[in-house]
Amino acid sequence: MQPEIDRARLARDVRQWLDDNRLTTRSAPQIYAGLNPAMISRACRESILSAASMLALCTAMKCDPTAYLTFLDKRNQAVTAHVNRETRGAA
Q1: What is the DSSP letter of 69?
Q2: What letter would DSSP give residue 32?
Q3: Fewest Cβ atoms closer than 10 Å to its Cβ: which of 15, 43, 45, 75?
Q4: Domain residue extents for the chain
Q5: Residue (of 20, 23, 62) closest to 41 by Cα position
Q6: How far is CA 84 from the centre of its chain?
Q7: Does residue 74 contact residue 3 with C-beta atoms inside 8 Å?
Q8: From first to last of its 91 residues, what are the pLDDT tens digits of the chain?
Q9: If residue 5 lies in a helix (H) or strand (E), which one and from where to where?
Q10: Under CATH, what is the fold of the domain 2-68?
């Protein structure tokens, strides 16, 4: 099991927090220290955030960051088989 962040849930919660507090990606950083528009935008787009950015967002939203921790089972991932490939100019 590999730890991962549930970025979809985080994105949903950040968007909801912005809506509930009548904030925008530009107005939130003016009120909450440590936030910036790019960070909030990345969170809303489900992009990967640094640990520090996620903690800053969770602090501003007054939520527990471990609520977004999930564990993925990586054992059944598809694997690409090694095969000979046709290439130009092969002898």
Answers
A1: E
A2: S
A3: 75
A4: 2-68
A5: 23
A6: 37
A7: no
A8: 899 999 999 999 999 999 999 999 999 999 999 999 999 999 999 999 999 999 999 999 999 999 999 998 877 666 566 666 666 665 5
A9: strand 2-5
A10: 434 Repressor (Amino-terminal Domain) (1.10.260)
